[in-house]
């Protein structure tokens, strides 16, 4: 079951940065409800090659709550990890692929 229905709750997208100009990966974050929660998307714009590993610091994509976050997969809803603002979030993104996660305040 796809869990991305929460994407349209708040019509704001905040681009934080492209993780690496050479990797052609964009990282997007969007605040959602409940307040303090975010959707984070990693978009691979390259259409060839191998999956690209992207590493971001949680606070750099808006995850600044010191209580931390429970991160779930945006498509399956399965738990991925618990993360705090100083922690690194590492994902592999397939060519022309997207990885989407939901971060909810712990």
Task: Provide structural commentary.
0% of the residues lie in helices and 50% in strands. The chain is mainly beta and 106 residues long. It has a 6-stranded antiparallel beta sheet with strand order 1-2-3-8-5-6, with no helix packed on it. A hairpin with a 4-residue loop joins strand 2 (25-32) and strand 3 (37-44). The two termini are 23 Å apart. The mean pLDDT is 82.
Strand content: over 45%
Task: Name the helix and strand elements from N-terminus to C-terminus, one letter apiece.
Answer: EEEEEEEE
Instruction: Write out the strand line-up for the largest beta sheet, numbering strands in chain order.
Output: 1-2-3-8-5-6
Kindly, what is the distance between the CA atoms of the first and last residues, rounded to a whole number of angstroms?
23 Å
Mean pLDDT, rounded to whole units?
82
* SSE-based structural type: mainly beta
β-strand number: 8
Query: Helical percent range?
Result: under 10%
Largest sheet: 6 strands, antiparallel
Helical run tally: 0
Radius of gyration (Å): 13 Å
- Ranges with pLDDT <50 over ≥5 residues? none
Sum up the overall morphology in one term: elongated
Give the gist of this structure:
By secondary structure, the chain is mostly beta strands. The protein contains no helices and eight strands.
Topology, please?
Blueprint lengths: L13 E7 L4 E8 L4 E8 L7 E6 L11 E5 L5 E5 L4 E6 L4 E8 L1
């Amino acid at each position: 079951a796809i869990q991305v229905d929460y994407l349209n709750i708040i019509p704001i997208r905040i681009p934080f940065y492209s993780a690496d100009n050479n990797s052609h990966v964009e990282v997007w974050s969007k605040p959602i409800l409940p307040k303090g929660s975010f959707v984070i998307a990693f978009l691979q714009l390259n259409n060839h090659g191998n999956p690209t590993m992207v590493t971001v610091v949680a606070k750099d994509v808006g995850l600044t709550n010191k209580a931390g976050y429970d991160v779930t997969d945006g498509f399956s809803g399965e738990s991925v990890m618990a993360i705090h603002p100083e922690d690194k979030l590492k994902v592999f993104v397939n060519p022309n692929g997207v990885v989407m996660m939901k971060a909810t305040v712990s």
